[in-house]
Write a structure and sequence with these properties.
Blueprint: H1 2-9, H2 19-24, H3 26-29, H4 32-35, H5 37-56, H6 63-71, H7 73-85, E1 93-94, E2 98-100, H8 111-116, H9 118-121, H10 141-151, E3 155-159, H11 162-174, E4 178-182, H12 195-201, E5 205-209, H13 217-223, E6 228-234, H14 250-260, E7 264-269, H15 287-292, E8 297-301, E9 312-316, H16 318-326, H17 328-333, H18 337-352, H19 365-379, E10 382-391, E11 400-408, H20 411-418, E12 424-425, E13 427-429, E14 432-435, H21 445-457
Parallel strand pairs: 1-12, 2-10, 4-5, 4-6, 6-7, 7-8
Antiparallel strand pairs: 3-9, 8-9, 10-11, 11-14, 13-14
Helix pairs in contact: 5-7, 10-18, 11-16
The structure holds pyridoxal-5'-phosphate.
Length: about 450
């Protein structure tokens, strides 16, 4: 686009364009609100100076080469400024059928929540002020009420993310003391999150029990002593041990924890508040079920299956959570008002039983079929069987059967879709492009169809 417009805009024979002319070129002017006039001007001057010194060299470059370089100036400027200052975050359509991708920002917020937020964020709010008494209140108090209503827990606390929930619980309840964990649950979840390292960072001593594949209740019992502060159970949600395996269910651990008077913390991981009708989630205990089973504390993420903002939820006994909230680390790990306001709205939708983006994974068959048929007709696509997944470490081996769009495709088409407007992420299967609409909001179908149409007609 800039090449066409600039051919009459810049004239290589008359030399390099003046800086102001370059700055008023549409492709350059659009950079100014994103990066600021000063940055754009500095980079533009740098590129023009460089061309000028190329012109002054002996022998000078051939005129066609200079003409080309001048015509490409706006594009080059945009590319350089983007690589220097980074491109703005983009809205992306996830047509992979994988609900949670950490790379794609994990769970999308319910549209009603996203739309309602600005009015809370562009003004002051009663985050820590009790409007009735005029006294200071707790920033967690609203989400705490909602969490306790949803999970049956006595109390709740929200921190920055689930890793922070574990850190604060371990630091507040088990510093310089022992935490008993099964060897089969010493997991790593993406990059730098490993249970033994979190434990060390919080100053707790890890006592490993059992073997990688089998841990029995007697192993826990033998490990508990006067220095034991906590029993920890982690749901290793991003892999599954199969074969000759055994682990101890939360219910059995509750009985042991009560008898030995040691609190039990369960890292549920996904932030599943209550049991979900999706059959692939049947084996995954919710926070409500863990509370009903008698666990002292449970924690999970805000932006996985719960479908909210990045947050770490802790629910359980009020006395234990009060120790977490009073710990100095709470100040470092507490959520900001944007996260709290978002979480509050998402929890209200859970309470109201409203449909959430996660539920799109199990669409009504008929309605989904006609949605796919419409898109397939527009794009000349086929409808093929395809598996969707929860992703993000939730029920990794439980595919959700269904249907998706299929088109002839290769890596080039995949890349073109990724670079389109809006960017679309699909996947390749046996030489075909697969687009699974179960992770796309129906309101985005028209934009998806248009962008895929453009990408195909350029191939
Ligand atoms: C995802 C996950 C975490 C980390 O949660 P973040 O919110 O990403 O910090 C911890 N434990 C389990 C079991 C998880 O699945």
């Amino acid at each position: 686009m800039p090449g066409v417009e600039s051919s009459d805009f810049f004239d290589a024979r008359r030399g390099l364009p003046p800086l102001d002319r370059l700055l008023s070129h549409p492709a350059v002017a659009s950079l100014i609100p994103l990066y600021g006039r000063d940055q754009v001007r500095v980079q533009a001057r740098r590129i023009i100076d460089e061309l000028r010194s190329r012109l002054a060299a002996a022998p000078p470059p051939p005129p066609e080469e200079m003409e080309g370089a001048v015509a490409a100036l706006p594009e080059r400027l945009a590319a350089e400024i983007e690589s220097l200052l980074g491109r703005p975050l983009r809205r992306v359509l996830n047509a992979t059928g994988i609900f949670l991708h950490t790379n794609l920002g994990r769970a999308p917020l319910p549209p009603a929540v996203a739309q309602g937020l600005p009015s809370l964020l562009d003004a002051y709010c009663d985050l820590e002020l009790d409007l009735d008494t005029g006294r200071r209140g707790q920033r967690n108090r609203r989400v705490e009420r909602l969490l306790t209503a949803l999970t049956g827990a006595e109390a709740g606390l929200v921190v920055n993310n689930n890793a922070a929930a574990l850190v604060i619980a371990l630091a507040a309840l088990a510093k310089d003391r022992e935490v008993v964990v099964s060897r089969g649950e010493l997991i790593e979840i993406g990059g730098s999150f490993r249970i033994p390292e979190i434990m060390a960072a919080a100053g707790a001593r890890l006592i490993e029990v059992g073997a990688t594949n089998r841990t029995r209740i007697a192993d826990y019992e033998a490990a508990v002593g006067p220095a034991t502060a906590l029993l920890l159970k982690v749901f290793p949600s991003n892999f599954r041990l199969t074969g000759f395996v055994a682990s101890v269910e939360p219910g059995q651990l509750v009985e042991l924890a009560r008898r030995l008077q040691v609190p039990l913390l369960v890292d549920e991981g996904s932030g599943l508040l209550r049991s979900h009708p999706g059959p692939q989630l049947a084996g995954h205990p919710s926070l409500a079920e863990l509370m009903a089973a008698g666990c002292d504390l449970a924690c999970g993420s805000g932006d996985k299956l719960l479908g909210g903002p990045q947050a770490g939820l802790l629910v359980g006994r009020a006395d234990l959570l009060e120790r977490c909230r009073r710990h100095p680390l709470y100040r470092a790990l507490r959520p900001d008002r944007a996260a709290l306001a978002t979480l509050e709205e998402v929890l209200r939708l859970h309470l109201a039983g409203a449909p959430l983006p996660l539920d799109r994974l199990w669409p009504d068959r008929q309605a989904h079929r006609s949605r796919l048929e419409h898109a397939a007709a527009e794009l000349g696509a086929e409808i093929v069987p395809a598996e969707a997944f929860l992703g993000g470490g939730s029920a990794p081996e439980a595919p959700i059967p269904g249907e998706a769009l299929s088109l002839p495709g290769d890596d080039t088409l995949l890349a073109r879709l990724r670079r389109g407007e809006p960017p679309i992420i699909g996947y390749l299967r046996q030489g075909r492009l697969i687009l699974d609409l179960r992770t796309v909001a129906e309101e985005d179908d028209a934009a998806l169809i248009a962008a895929v149409g453009r990408a195909i007609c350029h191939s």
